[in-house]
Write a structure and sequence with these properties.
Radius of gyration of chain B: 14 Å
Structural class of chain A: mainly beta
Number of helices of chain A: 0
Helix content of chain A: under 10%
Oligomer: heterodimer
Shape of chain A: globular
Structural class of chain B: mainly beta
Low-confidence stretches of chain B: none
Radius of gyration of chain A: 13 Å
Low-confidence stretches of chain A: none
Helix content of chain B: under 10%
Largest sheet of chain B: 7 strands, mixed
Number of helices of chain B: 0
Chain lengths: ~110, ~120
């Protein structure tokens, strides 16, 4: 089976940097994804790591350590619009690109 | 934005009635998925499809069935709805991938289903 752990809530100040951690236990692993979801909205893709290391996309970066079964999402120069839920998800097969999602971290950005 | 439409967007029905949710895509993507989202559980996969008439179960498939008769349509059916199936249902699509790079899943706007 699969399990993912991420903090349920994080609060950070506008303009600051925040890191959201994700640890996983899976029977198959092909990569770690991050999705963002605003209240009442649909999840949207942020980033994907298949190999160890850091992937940077604008203000967002994502890191993976396969040996530690650990990854994180780093958000820099936080803006109020970054207040949302963030989900890590493991890609568990190459067959149908299936994902197994964590329970999500609710990020609140305060002025 | 990926062309993916869910219908209906909201539905209220009674326990024991059948319910069908529709997901329609215009992207010609191979893979389609149905998830449910409940507080404290994140997104849980119900069923997925890897082609026309090719479907398989996800982690929470009990009480649900699916059908895919055309590439663009993926239907989720609750044969006899129960209150425990009150949830927000998301459809997602993804193209096939032959590389290490992920092909991300694109989600529809969701269907809020209430079963009384």
């Amino acid at each position: 089976g699969q399990s993912l752990e991420q903090p349920s809530e994080v609060t950070a100040v506008e303009g600051a940097i925040v890191q959201i951690n994700c640890t996983y236990q899976t029977s198959g692993f092909y990569g770690l994804s991050w999705y963002q979801q605003h209240d009442g909205g649909a999840p949207t893709f942020l980033s994907y790591n298949a190999l160890d290391g850091l992937e940077e996309t604008g203000r967002f970066s994502s890191f993976l350590s396969r040996s530690d079964s650990y990854g994180y999402l780093l958000l820099q120069e936080l803006q109020m619009k970054d207040s949302a839920s963030y989900f890590c998800a493991v890609r568990v097969s190459t067959g149908a690109n299936n994902l197994f999602f964590g329970t999500g971290t609710r990020l609140t950005v305060i002025p | 934005d990926a062309g993916i439409t869910q219908s209906p967007r909201h539905k209220v029905t009674e326990t024991g009635t059948p319910v069908t949710l529709r997901c329609h895509q215009t992207e010609n993507h191979r893979y389609m998925y149905w998830y449910r989202q409940d507080p404290g559980h994140g997104l849980r996969l119900i069923h997925y499809s890897y082609g026309v008439k090719d479907t398989d179960k996800g982690e929470v498939s009990d009480g649900y069935s699916v059908s895919r008769s055309k590439t663009e349509d993926f239907l989720l059916t609750l044969e006899s709805a129960t209150s425990s199936q009150t949830s927000v249902y998301f459809c997602a699509i993804s193209p096939s991938t032959v590389s290490i790079r992920e092909q991300p899943q694109h989600f529809g706007d969701g269907t809020r289903l209430s079963i009384l």
